[in-house]
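Homework-ish question, so no full write-ups if that breaks the rules, but can someone show me the predicted structure for this set?
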Amino acid sequence: MYDATTREVVAPVPDESVAAAATPDPAPPELVVRGLRKTYEAETAPVRALRGVDLTVGRGEFVALMGPSGSGKSTLLHLLAGLDRADEGSVSIAGIRTEELSATRLARLRRRHVGLVFQFFHLIDHMSALENVALAALVAGAKPAEATERARDLLDTLGLLEKAGESPANLSGGQRQRVAIARALANRPTLLLADEPTGALDSDGAAEVHDLFTRMHRVGQTILMVTHSADVAAGAQRIVRMRDGVLLGEIATTGEQR
Amino acid sequence: MGGGGFGAVRAVARAELRTGWRALLLMALVFGLVGGIATGAIALAERTATAYPRLVEAVALDDARVLVAADQPQLAAAVPSLPGVAEVRTDQAWIAQIDGPALRFVSIGAPTTQHDDLVRPVVVAGRMPAREAPDEVLLSESIAADSGLGVGSRITLRMLTLQQVSMFDVGFGPPAGPTTQVTVVGIGRMPTWGGALAAVQAGPAFAAKFLPDIVGYAIYARFAPEPDAAQRFGAAFARTAAVVDQISPSVVAQYVPHSVELPGAAVDPAVRAAEQVLVGGLVVFVIVLGLGGLQVLGQSLLRHHSARRATQRVESALGMDVVERTAARVLAAAGAGVVAGIVGGAVILAAGWLEPLGSQARFEPAPGFRPQWELVIIGGLGIGVVFLMTVAVTAAVAGRAQQPTVTRPRPGGTRLLRRWPAALLGTRLALHGRVGRRGLPAGTTAVAASLAIAGVVAAVALGASLERLVDTPARYGQGADMTIVDAREADVGRLVADPRVAALDVGASGTATLADGTPIETTSREVRKGSLPVALAGGRLPVGHDEVAVGPRAASTLGVNVGDTLDIRRVHGGTSTLRIVGVAVLTSQNNGAVGDGLLVAPTVMRELVPGQPLFDAAVVAAPGAADALYAELAQNLEVFPRQVPDAVRNLGDLVTLPEILALVLAVVAGAGMVHALLTAGRRHAREVAVLSVLGATPGQVRSTLAVMAAATVVPALVVGVPLGLGAARVLWWQLATATGVAGDLAVPWRLLLVVVPAVLAGALLLSLAPAKRAARTPPAVALAGG
Ligand SMILES: Nc1ncnc2c1ncn2[C@@H]1O[C@H](COP(=O)(O)OP(=O)(O)OP(=O)(O)O)[C@@H](O)[C@H]1O
Ligand SMILES: [Mg+2]
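A: Not a homework solution, just the prediction itself:
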């Protein structure tokens, strides 16, 4: 079921220091968040989406983030990935503090360490499934031949090789999400962030994707996943609950591995 | 209709109006303006194309005219009763020398009684000569322009006797007829002047006063409405003339041939060719502008309605169907539609100030403001209706349930582009991306851009060719600064010795006959000093005994080219076979036509042309000496300064048209391109955000947008420039051949060398703006918006 190629493909790569200025300690946790705050300027009143979040995710950990709608889960994920800037607080990924990085350095950090999966896939319809995945590898600095090879391997692993030439627009929801996951893995991220990856899928699609995350976790992938589904969350080692922009408590699961 | 009913439609319309009236009004103003300009161009094309027929109507143009010598009054008297004739007007004719800087003769015509229903020049300045005033005349526009005379000018007419006219070729003393002072009271316009229609028109009092001194009769006839009236009249006139010649031959027979002019058929082919190019250019202009305007309006409205798509979803949920939702939007835009119509109508009305384009302005019977009310009303209504229809269509499209666009990417074709992620994504988005969520596919934009660039290049190249022609007299066979008619050897010898003369050719011309019996004007040029520029449209000048060069127009009508042969009858029997060694542009000494006829070596001339040829001396003055030399020669020789042939002058009038066309096309295409590139970032915000998510740096995002801009512009340039040059080549060849000049296109290389990189650089520069915006927008926000 899980062959050697995949293991090689999804295994985290050692960090070759993005920012020379930062000096990571020997084995820092994959993700450290301290006092993170974010307020959106909305039309009526400012929305305090995050009101001081602290979170640590260790290497190889699989953490599920749950909470009611509007509690700030997506906001948190976006800040972690550096897709938006926090008002206060700090984020370290692989031991590197992100808040002082320039946009370019932040992009390089993301390219090297972070993979992102969204509820609505965000694939590019003008490119084939293969090209969507290869694009990520190319951005990460792979040579063209290598990028194509890597994309092919990933699609093969995720059972989508026969759809490699297809536009995402012609794929089912589950297939699209698997392409999106392949794309998120194309740069061999040390941290995989997923925002309701099963949210837009039917139960079959959700099961496929859920299964995939479990397998990735088993080969050592660090995962932080937002989900509304208790079933999906049950596959994680740890469930973190969020409400009104703050983390409530943690629940350790059995880390059930089906 | 669904459950909403009209009340709901009105309520929605009110809400739409409240939130969107500014945008609607702006779009209406712009569309009204663009639609008005496009329709105004149609009005201008109509005015241009109908100028000639309207003038024919306005002047009550005659069907045929003949000139009869004064010593054959029987012939003149016979014309009214010839078959085919419905109506006749007979004028008296005189020839007079007028005072001025150079020796000039003019013909004068005057009716014995006032006529209004046949040959009635349009008066463009002043008035017609008064019935009872013997000292008032009307001048043709062309003579007024050539001589610098205008309304109020006084001229002295020294009339010739018939006897003097008969000695025109051998020379005569000072005019022996009466001398009179007249005042120019008007300038007249006719489709053509000359021949039997004198360039100086006087009234009945003049005719009565100088009746004994006439040299001829100018007779204008209107045919009966019979199909073969022209042939029957022509044949009968020839028969009658032959009989009269038998009884009493005229002393001026060689100057007054018994030929019938048909003024209705006398439109120069060059004028027609120019007119076609003009109207063709206007049609392209209207199409480009109309489609451009519609595209911009469609895109803007689509964006306008798409931004409010959520509102339509709510309305739909509340039970309003697509017809009601669309109707509400049309109702909200009704006022804007009226504004568009009014603005459009006003612009069309204002287009009434535009005179016909190019040479056709000389045929306009009603110069000045000419409103076309039908077009104003129909155009204004049309613009309003099209505006509202576009509102309806875009509202319906934007309100439709969203369907994913299914495009099948071709993964194989981009191996090269894979080298660089920016290149891969940039070209993909440029080539496959759609303009707006549901707008035209990018391919259409590329085709439109290519055509626009082709149009600009073609117009510029055509304009450059026209300009080069007008600025290079040798190109229309007028390399000489001045030409002395009937040059005598003594004068030629004196001029050759004159240091102020840089070059002098003696030309001889006469009529040769092709083997099939067609007469053809044949010229030879003998170089006496220096070298006179002659335009060669191909090959070289004839030197040998069996060589000939043909004019471009002659080459086209005879269907021959360099390398072919021509058989020409010899004066003493038999035919000569001459090899065509070149295509040379010459002006006829006879009628000023360009590019007709043959050019041979002087020795060949004597073998092919019977009788005494007409001699002329073409003179190129030393730099700066032309004016003084001309003034001196004009005192006792009939010398003409360089004259621009009508055909070339007509083309010269067109020079600004391609430039205007190029400018408008460039502005429209440029605006479209700027719009497309500036909105590229917004259109592809989601894709660009995805690129950032994958770890692309701001630099890579900039590169992607730059590649996208280049991928939009480069194919348009690569296709458009050669396409435009090709089109211009074909058009210019046709125009040049019809005019009789060389058909080689003036390619504006220098302009292209500047413009092509400038367009590219501009596109790349423009792509920086959306790149900057993309860099400012956090990817999270862009993704949420997509
Ligand atoms: N770009 C934005 N501008 C203004 N307010 C925002 C923006 N993005 C999010 N918010 C607000 O911030 C709060 C948190 O939003 P967020 O998307 O993080 O919630 P969420 O937990 O992901 O919810 P869901 O489970 O529905 O996805 C919400 O109140 C939301 O309205
Ligand atoms: Mg969310």
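Now go work out the reasoning yourself. Hint: The CA atoms of residues 294 and 420 of chain B lie 37 Å apart.
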